[in-house]
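ARCHIVE CARD
CATEGORY: sequence design from structure
SOURCE FIELD: tokenized fold
FIELD CONTENT:
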């Protein structure tokens, strides 16, 4: 099959490249600009670029990793956020409809408000996005679901792995190694997702053309403070450099859900999803 991966230079894009590069699929790697792993320039918010690529290459599958994901910046740049996270998705949907292409799209736990006591959400739970990023991602989902195309939407949580841009694991590890203090909240709880796990789920959903919404995350429910302490312990770094703070201490522009996690039964049953334990993922990465 011919597969286009958008946002190839991001964390998940890099992981997909690693997992697919020796496959039998014909692969196209795109980003807003050429360079890095990108061999095609496809800005998903540019309808002309999207249509031109589809007309010339006619992909069977698109795995959309492109998004504006800086939640605080999305509060400041509403128009740009909507242009990418909603307009860009609509451009892909329209092209997929014309060319009978399957769209696999990555979404987020932020569409939920995090007020559920257990913090464990299934695919049928009602969303209640709190910030502009979350609202844009939910609207992107709705554009896909309402389009009647072949689609898989994979919602995920706090993705981590090795990448030049910081994520929770690399940020904490690098900061502690440099003897820098780190502020980590104890009142925001997540089930962090190993990037390779998410990538495998994207590939499985794409190859099966598994229609619907799937929840993908790791098996460990932890606060950011817990995550930091586990990283410090794993690498034998100084936990005293980690400051225990509350969300209200941080003055973050975007509201975040306090407690999120996913029921993985659907993904396990349909996508054969097997999440990697946090410690085991560190063994793999490092």
């Amino acid at each position: 099959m011919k597969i286009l991966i958008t946002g190839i230079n991001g964390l998940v894009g890099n992981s997909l490249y690693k997992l697919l590069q020796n496959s039998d699929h014909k692969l196209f790697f795109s980003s807003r600009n050429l360079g890095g792993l990108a061999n095609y320039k496809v800005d998903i918010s540019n309808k002309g670029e999207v249509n031109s690529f589809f007309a010339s290459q006619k992909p069977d599958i698109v795995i959309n990793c492109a998004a504006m994901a800086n939640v605080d910046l999305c509060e400041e740049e509403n128009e740009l956020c909507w242009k990418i996270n909603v307009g860009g998705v609509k451009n892909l949907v329209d092209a997929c409809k014309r060319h009978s292409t399957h769209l696999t799209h990555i979404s987020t736990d932020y569409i939920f408000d995090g007020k559920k006591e257990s913090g464990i959400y299934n695919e049928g739970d009602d969303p209640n996005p709190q910030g502009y990023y979350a609202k844009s991602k939910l609207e992107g989902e709705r554009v896909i679901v309402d389009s009647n195309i072949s689609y898989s939407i994979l919602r995920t949580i706090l993705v981590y792995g090795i990448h030049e841009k910081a994520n929770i694991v690399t940020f904490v590890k690098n900061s502690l190694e440099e003897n820098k203090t780190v502020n980590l909240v104890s009142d925001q709880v997540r089930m962090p997702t190993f990037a390779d796990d998410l990538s495998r789920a994207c590939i499985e959903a794409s190859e099966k053309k598994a229609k619907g919404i799937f929840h993908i995350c790791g098996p460990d429910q932890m606060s950011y403070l817990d995550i930091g302490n586990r990283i410090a312990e794993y690498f034998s770094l100084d936990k005293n450099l980690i400051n225990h703070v509350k969300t209200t201490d941080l003055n973050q522009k975007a509201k975040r859900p306090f407690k999120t996690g996913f029921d993985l039964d659907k993904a396990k049953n349909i996508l054969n999803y097997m999440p990697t334990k946090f410690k085991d993922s560190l063994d793999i990465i490092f």
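CARD ANNOTATION: Residues 2-165+192-219+260-276 form a domain with the Rossmann fold fold (CATH 3.40.50.720). Residues 78-99 form the longest helix (22 residues).
SHELF: design records, drawer C
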